[in-house]
From TrEMBL:
Signal peptide: none annotated. It catalyses: guanosine(46) in tRNA + S-adenosyl-L-methionine = N(7)-methylguanosine(46) in tRNA + S-adenosyl-L-homocysteine. It is an enzyme of class 2 (transferase). NCBIfam families: tRNA (guanosine(46)-N7)-methyltransferase TrmB. PANTHER family: 3-DEOXY-D-MANNO-OCTULOSONIC-ACID TRANSFERASE/TRNA GUANINE-N 7 - -METHYLTRANSFERASE, PENTACOTRIPEPTIDE-REPEAT REGION OF PRORP DOMAIN-CONTAINING PROTEIN. Catalyzes the formation of N(7)-methylguanine at position 46 (m7G46) in tRNA. GO terms for cellular component: tRNA methyltransferase complex. Substrate binds at residues 145, 177. Pathway: tRNA modification; N(7)-methylguanine-tRNA biosynthesis. PROSITE patterns: SAM_MT_TRMB (PS51625). It comes from Bradyrhizobium sacchari. This is tRNA (guanine-N(7)-)-methyltransferase. Residues 1-17 have a biased composition (Basic and acidic residues).
Amino acid sequence: MSERKSDPDRDDSERAFFGRRKGHKLRQHQAELIDHLLPHLALDIDRDAPADACEIFDPAADDLRLEIGFGGGEHLAAEAQNFTTTGFIGCEPYVNGMAKILAQIEAANIANIRLFAGDAAELLAWLPKASLSRIDLIHPDPWPKRRHWKRRFVQDRTIAAMARVLKPNGEFRFVCDIDDYCAWTLSHLARSPDFKWLAERADDFRQPWPGYTMTRYGRKAAREGRKAAYLRFRRVG
């Protein structure tokens, strides 16, 4: 669910968020990164997950977080550089987005990111129970037409899947500038016994949380007059 508008007519039999896998033609160096750097960082979910998911990294990370649909990778790269002992998994089926994060990893020599170029639901099913401290979903595809709402990432089944892999008191954080999808997310999380919305006042969801890295899509939305909501939910129980 990366920061883009997907083709609503794409065949639903194609996996990975029903989204486009490739857009603009990759530049030569981007293609080289996909061919040569990505294999070293890509998770292979056909293998058994380690009992301790922090051992995905060598040396093992102190903590583990996931960003679903990282788009251009600005937020993911910034978080990884700010929290160097935390391991980050970035999930993005869109090839151009993958090329962008790889370029940032190479340029800044970021060592604490691993990548998955596929369906986040499959990744969540692969990860061990209570292995993540946080999951971020930032400006996902909104799928505004009613007949496409089933394609939104936030569904009862994915909320249950996130609850399984989040540690107690772990967080799911959601950023979106589409009012309908924000309301959809709030209503779905409200009926889950596994999550509590953390907002106590309006600014808790109107303003980014401290340290938030604004993405290019977020800046574009602001220029076009759309205000984003910044929703935080804690895993309870």
